Amino acid sequence: MPVNVKLLKELCQTPSVPGREARVRKVIEKHVKPLVDSVRTDAMGNLIAVRKPRAAGKKARVTKATKKVMLAAHMDQIGFLVRHIDDKGCLRLQNVGGFDTRNLFARNVKVSTAKGDLPGILNPATKPVHIATEEERKKIPTIEEFYVDLALGAKEVNKRVKIGDMVTLDANFVDFENAVASQCLDNRVGCWAQVEMLKKLRNHACEVHAVWTVQEEVGLRGAGPAAFGVEPDFGLSCDTTLCCQTPGTPEEMRVTEFGAGVCLKIMDSSTITDIKLVEDLERVARAKKIPHQRGVLPRGGQDGAMIQRSRAGVRTAVFACPVKNIHTVVEMAHKTDLQSYPDLLAAWIAQVK
Ligand SMILES: [Zn+2]
Predict the structure, then answer these.
(1) What's the 59 CA to ligand 1 centre distance in angstroms?
(2) CA 86 to CA 345: how far, in whole Å?
(3) Separation of 51 CA from ligand 1 center, angstroms?
(4) What is the DSSP string of 119-185?
(5) Distance between CA 114 and CA 294 in Å, rounded?
(6) CATH no. of 79-169
(7) Which DSSP state fits 13?
């Protein structure tokens, strides 16, 4: 079956930064509603969809022995909130999530106001190369030095833009033969995989709690409260991870292999995953001939950390799609890695007793 690129594109083109997830949540809810028994949004903004067990295509009885599987994909993307409007009408930004400022020069951005989105240009407050000194040319600016030009003038900007409005980078979604490239594949891919998994799922003995979490990019803030509410037996974090199979990075630092299948993380700096659970996922993947790989990320975390440590502790595994150029507007994912992701989620969930 070909990868459902259309849904992934829709998710990637819907801006939502930490604390401003309403727009992407609405899109996800629309796609998920027909696939589940209930959908709710909790106090923090996490979207929680529940699918009761199914046997012979019908809803099955839930008993005390019924296992709960919680999936968590963060639906926020790295971005900015407006911090200040200067006397020329230029915006200064507060980043929400980690940026490499070298990737922020001369970018199209979208400023999302109460009355709609405005186009803007993001650039550092520096001179063009023609008139910059040798010293100035070498300097890498900090986030504080970047500004957004809306080409509207101070009066109009002050009328339309408020402190706290969301600003996101705005780039195209490119559909290659074997891959896709876009802004915020981290983590619209995980959001997408959970929806696609629910579409595939037929009969299952466990109760599925699929959660799309908020504020992951500013410190895994949504997943903990969500896990506390769900009280799962198993946690599956659905995110992306680094693929550094690119010139300039030695082979032993690649983290994942591009196109070798979804990565089951062994550890990152937030979580050491449940190795027995990883082995069980690998057993199912081998039986169903679903491409998969292991990966170790020396630095970086994801929502699984909060699920694993909620209440009295939860057995947790971490799914991660390999992504090249992560945290840029040209994040790239292989279609084999994309397809294997919902395939393995569905295959494993279908056999949980
Ligand atoms: Zn992520």
Answers:
(1) 33
(2) 48
(3) 24
(4) EEEEEES---GGG--HHHHH----GGGEEEE-SS-HHHHHHH--TT-EEEE----EE-SSEEEETTH
(5) 44
(6) 2.40.30.40
(7) T
The full set of domain ranges for the chain reads 5-77+183-350, 79-169
Active site annotation includes 216? yes
Q: Residues 10, 21, 207, 216: which is the catalytic one?
A: 216
CA of 168 to the centre of ligand 1 (A): 16
Which architecture characterizes domain 5-77+183-350 according to CATH? 3-Layer(aba) Sandwich (3.40)
User: In this structure, are residues 291 and 260 in contact, taking their beta carbons and an 8 Å threshold?
Assistant: yes
> 127 CA distance to ligand 1 centroid (A)?
34
Residue whose C-alpha is closest to residue 94's, from 84, 104, 81, 108: 81
Report the distance separating Cα 223 and Cα 7, nearest Å: 23
Q: Say how many Å lie between the CA of residue 302 and the centre of ligand 1.
A: 6
Question: At 139, is the pLDDT very low, low, confident or very high (cuts 50, 70, 90)?
Answer: confident
Quote the tokens at residue 315. Answer: 């057995």
Mean pLDDT, all residues of the chain: 96
Is residue 136 pLDDT above 90, yes or no? no
93, 99, 103, 106: CA torsion to nearest 10: -10
